[in-house]
UniProtKB/TrEMBL annotation:
SUPFAM superfamilies recorded: Gamma-glutamyl cyclotransferase-like (SSF110857)
Entry function: Catalyzes the cleavage of glutathione into 5-oxo-L-proline and a Cys-Gly dipeptide. Acts specifically on glutathione, but not on other gamma-glutamyl peptides. Glutathione depletion is an important factor for apoptosis initiation and execution. Acts as a pro-apoptotic component of the unfolded protein response pathway by mediating the pro-apoptotic effects of the ATF4-ATF3-DDIT3/CHOP cascade.
Pfam family, one: ChaC
EC numbers on record: 4.3.2.7
Biological classification of the source: Eukaryota, Metazoa, Chordata, Craniata, Vertebrata
Keywords: Apoptosis, Cytoplasm, Golgi apparatus, Lyase, Neurogenesis, Notch signaling pathway, Unfolded protein response
Protein name: Gamma-glutamylcyclotransferase
Species per Swiss-Prot/TrEMBL record: Vombatus ursinus
Region Disordered: start-end pairs: 1-26
């Protein structure tokens, strides 16, 4: 399902940087583009793609520092979603999706609405290292929310981020679902994908939950 923007919330993203499409492998092969997801794109790309690979990007850390007033929050109660922070020591795990031929324009058109218009993200070219072939890195397009975008919330104690996540939901669902689906993915990637920031927020949510679910209800994940 593709979200339709109720109104233009942020200026259209700057045109996608001239990411040279991967040359066709054979003359008959269509051009290809890799798109790197590290937040909701990990479990809900919602665009057609030909191939996907789990892996990581170096030089970035994932942070719940972007506000979201559409998908996981509202204007009155913005949720928190992730962006990439430039961090020389950082390593962020996610999923890269290969789009080929006509899939390219369809994916970019959809993501421009979902990520840029509705989410305040901009595009950035990153180097993606597939988990199964880290010696064969790929250039990929990533959507990154910079501090200059109007929805940027920036750093906060993990306990405060956890409180905000527990209190927010939007058109795509509860902010807690967003956190837990991402934590599930990182857990499935194994210990090399450890994300201390994400873990600290999940731990803080666990510590707060009795306050939010006094009857001891368990969290039902759809
Ligand atoms: N750009 C990041 C983050 C994308 C992201 O999480 N964007 C949010 C807010 S704009 C979104 O699309 N949410 C849809 C959802 O929460 O299901 C990614 O590559 O996954």
């Amino acid at each position: 399902m593709k979200e339709e923007p109720p109104t233009q919330r942020t200026p259209p993203a700057s045109p996608t940087p001239s990411l040279s499409l991967q040359p066709p492998r054979e003359d008959s092969d269509p051009p290809a583009l890799w798109i790197f997801g590290y937040g909701s794109l990990v479990w809900r790309p919602d665009f057609a793609y030909s191939n996907s690979r789990v892996g990581f990007v170096r030089g970035y850390s994932r942070r719940f520092w972007q506000g979201d007033t559409f998908h996981r929050g509202s204007d009155k109660m913005p949720g928190r979603v992730v962006t990439l922070l430039e961090d020389h020591e950082g390593c962020t795990w996610g999923v890269a999706y290969e789009v080929r031929g006509e899939q390219i324009s369809e994916a970019l058109k959809y993501l421009d609405v979902r990520e840029a218009v509705l989410g305040g993200y901009d595009t950035k070219v990153v180097t993606f290292y597939p988990q199964d072939a880290p010696d064969q890195p790929l250039r990929a397009l990533a959507y990154v929310a910079t501090p200059q975008n109007p929805g940027y919330l920036g750093p906060a104690p993990e306990e405060d981020i956890a409180t905000q996540i527990l209190a927010c939901s939007g058109r795509s669902g509860h902010n807690l679902e967003y956190l837990l689906r991402l934590a599930d993915f990182i857990r499935l990637c194994g210990p090399q994908a450890q994300d201390e920031h994400l873990e600290a927020i999940v731990d803080a949510v666990g510590a707060l939950l009795p306050c939010f679910c006094p009857s001891g209800q368990t969290l039902a994940m759809a």
